[in-house]
Specification:
Rossmann fold; nine-stranded antiparallel sheet; seven-stranded mixed sheet; 24% strand; 561 residues
């Protein structure tokens, strides 16, 4: 069916932005080759005061890719990355892409059972890790459990001393050194890689309570770069090759892969690669290293806004600041604008959209509560909750759909879920909202029960299943509650078994430590004699959500005099 133009949002686009800008897709190896040829000796990364040029980075990627081939890893094989923000991460990601392999990102925040599920589900038999903190130890346990055949460990010590660096484990018996693997000579010819090849399995929530792997191709990832370029280029005066991007967002997360890594490389930016967010380090990167771009999540912006004396610092190098993952409190947004002189950019996207979706134009800071306009090349609409083929007019609330070259083709080894996720070529997002007459989209609710805590997706069902393992728990419901720092946090409502004694929040968190990630641990618990149920006896969350809303409303009322 032909697209009816103009689209509702085109009239609201900033000057110079056009919806039908050419979105040319390609491959990650081609993107890197182009960046190396264009920017050559310019710094691509800085890590612990060590700069890595585009040329050096390209050489490291190809040397590691050659080593993977020498190990017998073929095109289409899944390779798991268990890495924080260190040089081994972007080298591994692009190295696997170079040979046509498929990256499976694992999070250092994952509990061991989550790691095991992702490895089993993806079929990855090679794991790349590092000796930062406990990660090498966890990786060795994974290897000892038979979940992988081969473990490659990157020695963080080669980048200089750090208290986070642990000793390297003993090599042998399928445990290899990253540097040893990366010492191979390039092959005469590389495996052919085409845009439609899968390059990434990025795990997100599933209906069974276990994460499912969103399939993302080279075309999806490069399309997201091109879409971002078509949107931002007309709205910035910064030239290619002049950017300096702070990367504290974790590179195992889709937001960072696009916002920091692929887009940064494509634009010739120097990526200031940081192991984790530290407010003092970030402010030094801005004021001393003259960073031009910083993308974060609300918790990071809250920390910056609340830093004593921050209003006296020099933020003049910044050209773009962005927040994702959850809404930023209005008072924090205003504070950031007052100290930086810049409007904090925001928008919406999903793992399944790599994560391009909608964005708020820089010339419309008045749109509180909106997720913005669909980006160039992307189609979005709102459909009836009882009929996903019936498109609703502006102002009516329904489920938001999205379509574009950046959108996943489905979920790994889940044909039924994949089929159910698409209607007429559009992905059903699970987000509830509406579009106004100007083409701006607004979220009103989430079809899924997902909690966004500190920018991370937290799935209540996974927490509930872990709590059910506690011998004293008969029933549990987990919902999201507001959290001043993280945006949202999990709260567990628990009905105890007959005769069982209640326990403290700290005791529950200790019990859950090896079952769910740190970001998933409940921030509050409440014991109930009974939990609400539907007419058919299913546990019901809506009553508890309503109670929490009412409780907050009462607490916010001014005291009577």
């Amino acid at each position: 069916m032909p697209i009816e133009r103009p689209l509702p949002w085109e009239k609201s686009y900033p000057p110079g932005v056009v919806w039908d800008a050419p979105i040319v897709v390609g491959t990650l190896p081609a993107l890197l080759a182009r960046a190396v040829a264009t920017y050559g000796g310019k710094p691509a990364f800085e890590y612990r005061e060590r700069k890595i040029s585009f040329i050096e980075y390209g050489q490291r990627v190809k040397a590691f890719a050659a080593g993977l081939l020498k190990l017998g890893i073929a095109k289409g094989e899944r390779v798991a990355l268990y890495l924080p923000n260190c040089p081994a991460q972007p080298v591994s990601l692009f190295g696997v892409a170079q040979i046509g392999g498929i990256v499976v990102n694992l999070s250092p925040l994952d509990a061991e059972r989550e790691l095991a599920h992702k490895l089993k589900d993806s079929g990855a038999r090679t794991l790349i890790a590092t000796n930062i903190g406990p990660m090498a130890g966890v990786a060795l346990k994974i290897k000892a459990a038979g979940l992988v055949d081969r473990l490659i460990i990157a020695d963080d010590a080669v980048w200089g001393p750090s208290p986070a660096t642990a000793p390297m484990p003993a090599l042998g018996n399928g445990v290899l050194s990253f540097d040893e693997v990366a010492s191979a000579a390039p092959p005469a010819t590389w495996p052919e890689v085409v845009p439609d090849d899968i390059v990434l399995l990025q795990y997100t929530g599933g209906t069974t309570g276990l994460p499912k792997g969103a399939i993302l191709s080279h075309a999806n990832l490069t399309a997201a770069v091109e879409i971002g370029k078509a949107w931002s280029a007309p709205q910035t005066t910064m030239k290619l090759g002049e950017g300096r991007v702070i990367c504290v967002l974790p590179l195992f997360h889709m937001y960072a892969i696009t916002a920091c890594l692929t887009r940064g490389l494509d634009q010739g930016s120097e990526i200031l690669l940081r192991l984790r967010f530290d407010v003092e380090q970030t402010l030094r990167d801005i004021t001393v290293k003259r960073a031009t771009t910083f993308s974060g999540v609300p918790t990071m912006w809250i920390a910056i806004a609340n830093t004593p004396g921050v209003e006296k610092l020099d933020f003049s190098s910044l050209k773009g600041i962005h927040s994702g993952g959850a809404a930023v409190p209005i008072e924090i947004e205003n504070r950031i604008k007052s100290i930086t002189g810049l409007q904090l950019g925001g928008g919406w996207g999903m793992t399944e959209t790599a994560p391009a979706g909608a964005n708020i134009p820089s010339n419309r800071p008045d749109l509180r509560g909106s997720i913005g306009l669909p980006l160039p090349g992307i189609l979005m609409d709102v459909v009836a909750l009882d009929n996903p083929r019936r498109v609703l007019p502006p102002g009516e609330i329904g489920e938001i759909r999205i379509k574009g070259p950046n959108v996943t083709r489905g979920y790994w080894n889940r044909p039924e879920e994949s089929a159910a996720a698409f209607v007429d070529g559009y992905l059903l997002t699970g987000d509830i909202g509406y579009m106004d007459a100007e083409g701006f989209f607004f979220l009103t609710d989430r079809k899924k029960d997902m909690i966004i805590s500190g920018g991370f997706n937290v799935y209540p069902r996974m927490i509930e299943e872990a709590i059910y393992e506690h011998p004293a728990v008969e029933e549990v419901i987990v919902i999201g509650i507001p959290d001043a720092y993280r945006g949202q946090a999990a709260k567990a409502f628990i009905k105890l078994k007959a005769g069982a004694a209640p326990f403290t929040l700290d005791e529950l968190r200790d019990f859950l430590t090896d079952k769910i990630g740190r970001h998933e641990l409940p921030a509050a618990i409440e014991f109930r004699e009974s939990l609400p149920k539907t007419a058919v006896g299913k546990l019901s969350k809506k009553e508890l959500v309503a109670e929490e809303v009412a409780r907050r409303a009462v607490a916010a009322e001014p005291a009577s005099t």
